[in-house]
Design goal:
The protein is of the alpha+beta class and about 150 residues long. It has 4 helices and 8 strands. The protein has a 4-stranded antiparallel sheet.
Length: about 150
């Protein structure tokens, strides 16, 4: 009887281990919007881990040192339509960003935005603790040689 119980438990553990090791994400079951969000999250994580030296950042709020590795980057509007632009804001510290949010929940809209075309890259230094806000159209980010990424 003990042997049968041990064999049964071992079989269950083997099935669980096999199932856990062979799991994959069913991309067919994900909506288009969720798939795009997943892609943006993966691209941002690859940049943050230093696995890739460039990528696109979608509209959103990014924390330098958490979402993006601190360093020097060239940035450009990722949209290739020459009539399109991206807008971004760089807030030097989380404290300053939080101060703006406390004043007015929509205050981040009033922060100075910088226009970014797709004709000429702009060099930007992102320091730990800063907040980088992409306000419209994705931004292409490319790490410069002095960044400590592979």
């Amino acid at each position: 009887m003990k042997r049968a119980i041990c064999l049964f438990v071992a079989l269950i553990l083997a099935v669980i281990m096999y199932t856990a090791s062979s799991e994959s994400i069913d991309l067919q079951g994900i909506s288009d919007d969720a798939l795009i969000d997943l892609l943006n999250s993966v691209q941002t994580e690859l940049i943050n881990r230093g696995i890739v030296r460039s990528g696109e950042l979608a509209e959103g709020i990014y924390y330098v040192g958490k979402d993006i590795v601190a360093g020097s980057y060239n940035i450009i509007c990722a949209n290739m339509d020459e009539k399109e632009s991206s807008y971004y804001t760089l807030v030097p510290s989380m404290d300053l960003y939080n101060m703006y949010l406390e004043l007015d929940k929509e205050m981040y809209v009033a922060l100075e935005s910088n226009r970014l075309g797709n004709d000429k890259p702009v060099k930007i230094d992102l320091n730990d603790g800063a907040v980088f806000i992409v306000k419209s159209n994705p931004i292409r980010l490319e790490a410069l040689a002095n960044n400590l990424v592979p």
